[in-house]
Amino acid sequence: MSSSFRHFPQQVGIDAYGNGGFRFADLSHKGSLLCLPGRMQAWEVTDSAGLTLASLQPVLDLAEPVDVLLIGLGADIVAIDPNIRAAFRERGIIVEATQTGGAIRTYNVLLAEDRAVAAALIAVEKAR
């Protein structure tokens, strides 16, 4: 699968990351990724500067409830806009932001526990 990937019809764990993308469900995706209940989809955000309420709107638009949104910020940890946190808090969603690798590890654990989790993952070149 190449950068033309737009959507995978179920939420699955991430098998690997790095080299600017992700591996999951025997597929490879180049670029950032949204992991949502019911689907995995390409995400246009390439760095933490692109992390906005608008770029996270697909998570807010979910019909299914989510308890936790994990944000993989790439290689660095930066402060999240307080407006983003407030918008998710109003919907009862906890936002946890960390490096992409840490977000993936937590996402996989919560998904395996059948928790209502979503992840917004910025692709990185080097896995940590």
UniProtKB/TrEMBL annotation:
Protein's organism: Devosia elaeis
Protein name listed in UniProt: Mth938-like domain-containing protein
Pfam families noted in UniProt: DUF498
SUPFAM superfamilies reported in the protein's UniProt record: MTH938-like (SSF64076)
InterPro entries (UniProt xref): MTH938-like_sf (IPR036748), NDUFAF3/AAMDC (IPR007523)
